[in-house]
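Database export, one record per block. Field names are fixed; values are copied verbatim from the stored entry.
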Amino acid sequence: MKTRLLGGVVALVLAIVGAVLLSSYVKASDARAQAGLNPVDVLVVQENIPSGTPIEDFKTSVKAQSLPRTAVSDTTVTNLKDYAGKVAAVDLVPGEQLQASRLVDPKSLAAPNRVDVPKGLAEVSLTLAPERVIGGDLKAGDTVGVFISYNAGVVPGTTEVPATKLQFHKVLVTKVGTGDGNSASDANQSSESSKPGAFVMVTLAQSGMDATKTVHAIEFGHIYLSKENADTDTLSVDTLHKDQVLK
């Protein structure tokens, strides 16, 4: 009886030792196999990251994982610090490796053909026929001169006194559209503005007083825009009447 019991204990011990040795062998084999694949630590998305999310907000949404080198592309991100200031170009989903190609400068996600409004200025939009806006050849970031004309009543108490003046210089264009409220690329802008009856919507950045004058001209007069550059003369121009044009 004792002999059988002792034999059973020995068999149990041997089974346990065998299991431990087998487990150790398997782990060692896995480690050797993994080492043979040149594993690298990369960042893998753990939860949804919406487009436009700053890289600084990725910390809780990605996790470092060790993957075989053959399963990792050259553009896979391994360190968030290398991409400071970037944002997600598209929505990122759990399980995908974080790719450098999906991290971009925030400015690249800005609306097309649009620039920021300088601090302290307001935006005002004008809908003009192409001939009044250089044939539609304007884009956000350009500066323009604003010509204002009135057919009559230029001087209070008078009636038939048509006049024109180059009222503003170097006015920033913040947005250009084709009249449907949407921004347009240069190619589309040119194509749309060349159509019969087409018009161009131009948004300008101006101070409160200047914007008020522009709106007054929109309501009661006429406006032409000229495209200006760094060398354009910005000296003040007197109001011009018909008798002066025909001198």
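Remark 1: The first helix runs from residue 2 to 36.
Remark 2: Helices lie at 2-36, 186-193, 208-220, 242-245.
End of record.
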